[in-house]
Structures are given as C-alpha cells and as structure tokens.
C-alpha cells in the first residue's frame, strides 16, 4: 500500500474517504484497529488530524477518536466547502486583474466577470441558481417580462427557493405584472409571509442581486430571446444595480399583507375581508380589472366597493384611499 507522502491530491482525498469509512464501521476507532486494517501508524495520525480539522471526528484520548454524527458533520462540511467555492469564484475576476496589472498585461478582450445569457431558460436558471446561494440578502425588481412571470408564477418559484428568512428578501414589482392570473395571489402570499414587497409603475427592466456578490440583468421584455441578459460578478456594476434597487424600492408603494392587523382601536372599521383586500390592492396601484380578477368578482362589484371605501375614507383618489387605509392600519 502506498504511503501518504507518495499520494497525489486526488489520491489523498480518496485515502481520507476510505479511512473515514473504516472509522465509521469501527464505531469508536483506535489507532491500533486502523493499523490492523493495513494502515501505517504515521499515516493514521496525519489523516486523523485532517478529519478532525474538518470536524468529522474528535479526539477521545491518545490514539482514540469519536465519530461526529455524520448527519451533523457532513452537511456542515458541505456548507463550508460551498462557501469556499463561492468565495473562490467571486474573487477570480479581481485576482485576475491584479495578476495582469503585476505583469503589465492589458485586460483580455470581452467582458471579464460577465456571463452572457442568451435565452429565457438560461436567465431563469441563472436566477434560481443565484437565489439558492444567497447567504444574507436577496433583492429583485421585476418588470412585465417573460422571465419575471416565470419567476413569480412557476411552482417553487424564485422567492420560495431562497433559503433566507422572509425579512431578508426584498422585491419591487411592476404593476403591469398584475394583469397576469396568479401574480397577485403569489405576491400576497409573499407579503403575508413577511417578505418586503413594493409596487412600482414603469420599471425599465428586471434585475436580481444576491448579497453583494452577483447581479443579474434580465432584458427579456426587450428581446423575446432574452439576448443581452447577463450575470455580473464585478463590484462596480453590482453596486450600481444595488443602488438602482434601493431607489426603486424607496419610490414604490409598499405592499402590505391583505390580512388585517386588528388593532382593537376605535379607528378600526367593520370591514369584511374582501374590502380589506381591495384597499390593500388599491395601495399598490392595481386597476379595477386586476382587483376583480384577483378576487374572482365582477369589475362592477369592485367599482361599487371602491366608491364606498373612498367615501368612508374621505379620499379624493383610489390610490389615496389605499394609502389612508394603510396609515390607519385598516390593512
């Protein structure tokens, strides 16, 4: 059997895996038992040190080790390796630029740190992949594009795939998306779960930012093939897209959960659930037709209820009615 010093990197990893499996089978492995299994004592000690550093085993005395439960140790190791891999990918562009500067070499042709996406499917896949790697924050602004509709409406869509807490997810959505069946219901569910959702009018394109590491630009509303869409992992463009999101969110109308927050105060009206939903949708700028479709009622019914609610609130406009209701905590 080859000694540890003679192994290449891949062979070394195979050796560690084989030794770890042997330890698992032993239950509480000892150096003596591993030597009897055919391993050199020095190799056992060195490999055990690596396994302990990876938190797969722990020292239980001279030449004795305890196994950390694999269902705890292996997911923890996988997370650490994934984090290291992400860090490696994200620093590649900056390190490449540093290396070229040291050698006085010009930047290579093309867009370094930019991955072009040339189909709607590729843009959607990239969005899902990025969301799955989010550690701290996931922010997006969605116009009425083919990609946006899929990200909101597909089963297991973008925001249900994020591993983050709802409060760490921020979304600005163009009111034009409300024209598509199911969009309002999906956004209401997100708002009810605690996601920060705001509604804008006239977003020029869609974007996605994951932590401060990567940003995606979706241009599928401007090109049916989504040609020109891209993922960028360079700091300056990411910062620019982040700033655009913050401005869009600040200028948009927050979408409150449509379930009432009952305060018990005298200012709380005896509203039925449908009226609360109408007021919540008015605050986002939804049209009568979009509200009717969301509530599965006629447009005429919505028009009548909007008129009554506006009179009750003393609001001069539909949007003002929604804002007034939000301020009074009616919705």
Question: Can you describe what's shown?
Answer:
The structure is a single chain. The chain is α+β, with helices and mostly antiparallel strands and 331 residues long. The protein has three domains: 4-68, Arc Repressor Mutant, subunit A, CATH 1.10.10; 114-254, Endonuclease Chain A (Endonuclease, Chain A), CATH 3.30.870.10; 273-327, Orthogonal Bundle (Arc Repressor Mutant, subunit A). 50% of the residues lie in helices and 14% in strands. The chain contains 13 helices and ten strands. The strands form two sheets. The protein has an eight-stranded mixed β-sheet, with helices on both faces. A two-stranded antiparallel sheet has the order 1-2. The longest helix has 33 residues, at 70-102. The termini are far apart. Residues 258-268 have low confidence and may be disordered.
What topology emerges from the helices and strands here?
Blueprint: H1 9-26, H2 31-36, H3 41-53, E1 57-61, E2 64-67, H4 70-102, E3 114-117, H5 120-132, E4 138-142, H6 146-153, H7 158-161, E5 169-174, H8 183-192, E6 196-200, E7 206-210, E8 214-218, E9 229-232, H9 235-251, E10 253-254, H10 273-284, H11 288-295, H12 299-313, H13 318-327
Parallel strand pairs: 4-5, 5-6
Antiparallel strand pairs: 1-2, 3-9, 4-7, 6-10, 7-8, 8-9
